[in-house]
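Hey, why these numbers?
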Amino acid sequence: VVDILRRAGVEIHMVSITGETKVTGSHGIEIKCDTCIGQENFSETELFVLPGGMPGTKNLGACKALTELLTASFEAGKRLPMAGWCRKPRKKLAAICAAPSVLGDLGILKGKKACCYPGFEEHLTGAQVVFDQVAQDGNVTTSRGMGTAIPFALSLVSQLVSEEKAQELAQSIIFKG
């Protein structure tokens, strides 16, 4: 997801919630984040993307600084106008794999179409659960897992940059979705 967003020219900051910039994923792959949650100013951030996996998803849901930020951003995203030459960016939230459960547990998915990794549907509180590769509803985008990461990322490019850019990237990486 980060790779595709960067290819689209989207400025990305990978943020750790642990206080350490090195984070090890559920399959032992070490990621070096750009910064830690307490060191970043999110006032201009347009999109927050939650990665999935375990125990990472549980750690995201247990991080008070993150859950407060997600809730505030969701509320801000609902209020900001989307039309006019002087519009401010609309706050968007996205989550893949098990991570949509964090948004569901926060009540963010109420009344929205959402999808997740199989077995986490009960955490999509109030959502209309769908089994599409990607579900985009208002300012929230969810996806099902590693196998849907490319369509998920291309959906985010379409929302942040343009549908044309998303199609151009899909073609350049030889993605046949």
